[in-house]
Amino acid sequence: MIHIHLATATLVIALAALAWIDARSFRLPDWLTLPLIAAGVALNAISLGTPWTSLIGAALGYGSFVTLEIGYRRLRGRDGLGRGDAKLMGAAGAWCGGWLLPLIVLSGTLGALAFIGVTALVRRRLPDTSQPWPFGPWLALGFLIGWLHRAYGPGLYPVL
User: Fold this and answer.
1) 65 within a domain of the structure (yes/no)
2) Domain presence at residue 157
3) Which residue has the higher pLDDT, 52 or 156?
4) pLDDT above 70 covers what percent of the chain?
């Protein structure tokens, strides 16, 4: 049980670092995202004996965001998501499993929309849609919400 708390603390630190880096540089570095994928697979293999759930989740998370990235670029002629976002979603799938990916994306998207809405109210003008907005901090928030649900369940008690 202690290893779940240690994993959670490690994840919080990594996600905070990723959110900070992306907010400042619009980059989610491989040296943080790729080890998160491996750690999620290892944690699930050791704790539950279910590495396949983790591997499938990683593939679904990464693959779905790469598909969105490519589709948006072809449709709009500009980038909308970066490959770092896809790698972070791969890590989220590795830690949480594929079934929590919709919750993760929904949580992150709602957080981003709320932030943009509050920012628009404070500034008293709509945001400039020609300027990029980092999505990594919001994916990190969704990832954390998904992990807390996975690891501690609805009653916030460890289930792994």
Assistant:
1) yes
2) no
3) 52
4) 94
pLDDT, one tens digit per residue, over 88-125 is: 999 999 999 999 999 999 999 999 999 999 988 998 88
Prediction pTM value: 0.91
Dihedral sign from CA coordinates of 128, 133, 139, 145: negative
Please enumerate in sequence order all residues whose Cβ is within 8 A of that of 111, keeping only pairs 6 or more positions apart, or say none.
138, 141, 142
Can you say whether residue 29 is alpha, beta or left, with left for phi > 0 and alpha for psi between -120 and 50 degrees?
Answer: beta
DSSP string, 58-76: HHHHHHHHHHHHHHHHHHH
Using one digit for the tens of pLDDT, what is the confidence trace for 97-106?
999 999 999 9
Dist. CA 76–CA 74, nearest whole Å: 6
The answer to whether position 76 is within a domain reads: yes
Q: Are 106 and 142 in contact (CB under 8 A)?
A: yes
Total domains in the fold of the chain: 1
Show the tokens assigned to 37: 């994928």
Burial class (CB in 10 A: 0-12, 13-18, 19+), 154: exposed
